[in-house]
Specification:
The structure holds two protein chains of two kinds. By secondary structure, chain A is mainly beta. Chain A has no helices and eleven strands. Chain B is mostly beta strands. The chains are: A mainly beta, B mainly beta. Chains A and B meet through strand 5 and strand 10 of A and strand 5 and strand 10 of B.
């Protein structure tokens, strides 16, 4: 398997523009996670899906952020409108067995998308 | 979100020396503890997942122990090599979320 695939790897955009980040999880994984990594806050969970259904989006910073998972092999994280403080590295991760199995699951991370909003 | 603390924040070790560092977490409602290795410009890579008090896991020269009653885990690197240079992240989940610590950045000097 190619692992978790994210695109684009780098995105530079101007404030106010819409940004869409994409993720393809590992085939067969039924959990998908979106994380944001910043110097100030470290690695923080934004939202996660189980079988394409959003389970917990309490980490999504505000209404400008939205995430979808239309099928088992694709998810998007959208920021509209983008702001300079959204600049960060956004990681997607997937796992085979989620929390219901006692939490003893490994998450496999994608390479990340480095977003810069000017 | 759980309060996961790692110490030290960074450390330097001479090639060939051994080192260890700590992850502390709330011991109540514990499910599992995860160690990830994160190299610069790459993505975090899972090292260990530990669930039981007293668990010890080993992968090559890297090993980890877990004490769920007192809420801590140690990661050990034996005979450090330059390729061990990375940030080591600890994460804990109680019911459904992973909460990450800030990491310990290890630099191995040749």
């Amino acid at each position: 398997d190619a692992g978790v695939i994210q695109s684009p790897r780098h995105e530079v955009t101007e404030m106010g523009q819409e940004v869409t980040l994409r993720c393809k999880p590992i085939s067969g994984h039924d959990y998908l996670f979106w994380y944001r990594q910043t110097m100030m806050r470290g690695l923080e969970l934004l939202i996660y899906f189980n079988n394409n259904v959003p389970i917990d989006d309490s980490g999504m910073p505000e209404d400008r952020f939205s995430a979808k998972m239309p099928n088992a092999s694709f998810s998007t994280l959208k920021i509209q409108p983008s702001e300079p403080r959204d600049s960060a590295v956004y990681f997607c991760a997937s796992s085979f067995a989620g929390p219901s199995s006692g939490g003893s699951y490994e998450q496999y991370f994608g390479p990340g998308t480095r977003l810069t909003v000017t | 979100i759980l309060n996961v603390e790692q110490s030290p924040q960074s450390l330097h070790v001479q090639e060939g020396d051994s080192t260890n560092f700590t992850c502390s977490f709330p011991s109540s409602n514990f499910y599992a503890l995860h160690w990830y290795r994160w190299e610069t410009a790459k993505s975090p890579e899972a090292l260990f997942v530990m669930t039981l008090n007293g668990d010890e896991k080993k992968k090559g020269r890297i090993s980890a122990t877990l004490n769920t009653k007192e809420g801590y885990s140690y990661l050990y690197i034996k005979g450090s090599q330059p390729e061990d240079s990375a940030t080591y992240l600890c994460a804990v989940n109680n019911d459904y979320k992973l909460s990450f610590g800030a990491g310990t950045t290890v630099t191995v000097r040749a």
